[in-house]
Design brief:
The protein has 185 residues and is an alpha/beta fold. The chain has a single domain (3-181), classed as Rossmann fold (3-Layer(aba) Sandwich). The protein has helices spanning 3-15, 22-40, 55-61, 114-125, and strands at 17-21, 46-51, 70-77, 89-92, 102-110, 130-140, 152-158, 162-163, 178-181. A six-stranded mixed β-sheet has the order 4-3-2-5-6-7, sandwiched between helices.
């Protein structure tokens, strides 16, 4: 990465609009965890964190799920280093032993819903009894072409380019201490 590109990444954070603070996110994830516990507490579910965006939301959520569960991960992407998505590319598919199981897919956000829809369809193809979805952020996207809704979400945002808490800006700022929207996006 050139110095000019790195400066752009730094500037994006400095100029971004803070939509949710750390405290707001922690409270919202705790409440989402309560809803998930009420729904899945007796199911012995398999949770699948999506990489890389779902890593932070899954880590925040797990301590709020007070029931036995198993955890694994999947990895699929549409973005790479781009600001807009392309074709779905699978890096790690769901485990084959999910037939008959309740599965909860945890991701960073629902925007167009294409990536999450592909993950749900793959779990269904492998015979999961039910596939639920949980995201940190539900973006208010009109005419969403993929998965229309998730089963659980912590917060909602307008349709802007977001980063922080697992979401990235050109592969940077997943560690942002809040949920930020790029200025002008």
């Amino acid at each position: 990465m050139s110095d000019e590109e790195f400066e752009e990444v730094r500037r994006a954070r400095a100029e971004a609009d803070l939509l949710y603070s750390k405290a707001q996110i922690v409270d919202a994830v705790r409440l989402m965890g309560d809803r998930i516990t009420a729904r899945l507490g007796a199911e012995r579910p398999l949770l699948l964190a999506t990489m890389t965006g779902g890593l932070v939301p899954a880590a925040l959520l797990l301590p709020h799920l007070d029931f036995p569960l198993q955890l694994d991960y999947i990895h699929l992407t549409r973005y790479g280093k781009a600001l807009s998505g392309g074709e779905i590319h699978w890096i790690k598919r769901p485990p084959t032993g999910i037939a008959g199981r309740s599965v909860l897919i945890i991701d960073d956000l629902l925007d167009l819903g294409l990536t999450l829809q592909s993950a749900v369809e793959e779990c269904e193809r492998l015979g999961a009894r039910e596939v639920l979805t949980a995201v940190l952020v539900h973006k208010e996207v009109p005419d969403r072409p993929g998965l229309r809704q998730t089963d659980f979400h912590a917060v909602s945002t307008p349709d802007r380019y977001l980063f922080g808490y697992g979401m990235d800006y050109k592969t940077w700022w997943r560690n942002g201490p809040g949920i930020y929207a790029v200025r002008g996006a």
